[in-house]
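User: I'll paste a sequence; please echo it back and then give the predicted structure.

Assistant: Echoing your sequence first, then the prediction.
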Amino acid sequence: MKNRTLRWSATLTALIATPALAQDRTGGDRPSLQRVSLDSPTAISPSSATATVSASSVPQAMERLDGGGSTVDVSLGTLYGAGKFGTGSTTTIWSSAASARVHIDNLTLSASLPWMQIRSRSTIFTGIDATPVLIAPNTAIAKRTTEGFGDLTVGAAYTIAPTGLPVEVELSARAKLNTASSSSGLSSGSNDYALGADVSVPLGKVTPFASFTYRFLGDTDAYVLRDGPAASAGASLGLGSEAFLVASYHYSSAATRQVSAAHELFAGASQRIAGTPFRLTGFVTTGLSSGAAAISGGAALSIGLGPRAGM
């Protein structure tokens, strides 16, 4: 197993602490930072444009937390996907995840735990944010079903919003911890880590965004996994003050040389339920490569306690 825990921890500390220290400094020629709180007549997608599509990452990306004070966000999402992934048989993946975020000023802490069911001839493990990671195709003669709770993902993010500029940058670090039982067949048995940066530019009703994440994957007893990037780019469109649409392209590098990288298109819609703190989200994806599911779709229900920007 690759030993990156100390290096990742040190980088995480630098990622979160450096912007916070810069915000506290006064004087000099350094640009000042502001709390993330934009006044807008329309709904705004969050600065954390997700680089992955999963039952936990999508509902979190569909709810923007205001930068003033403290807020809590809880969501329950589910996703169903199917595809051949470069093999002669179809793999089906059903993933549901409970997620929570605590937002204090520009700092966000998050956690998510998935329940998964995978029916396939291939080897697939739980990835960061409950994203399935395809390791090797055709490793069994017949289809087998693996199900149960997957690995826990925890994360921290800090959003930087320079005063006077319509740009937000979010620096993040995430860890997938080996909490799934060894008998479930859903975990690699190792921890995975990721460092990311997201950029969004609110321009009225439209918010273009881009996200880049670099993943450090722990090896298994049978496979040496390849570290690599995941990325996305797209835009959201606000529909009044209660809803918006999102469309984006996603890329994820292959975990081993035996499988292909994933390329897919994403489309989602999110609507706040009138008179309630609940938000309902629906989304679909279509694969552009053999490394991605041919098609997937999901839904999520979120509830937030505290103010929302542009809501």
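The mean pLDDT is 80. The CA atoms of residues 20 and 168 lie 15 Å apart.
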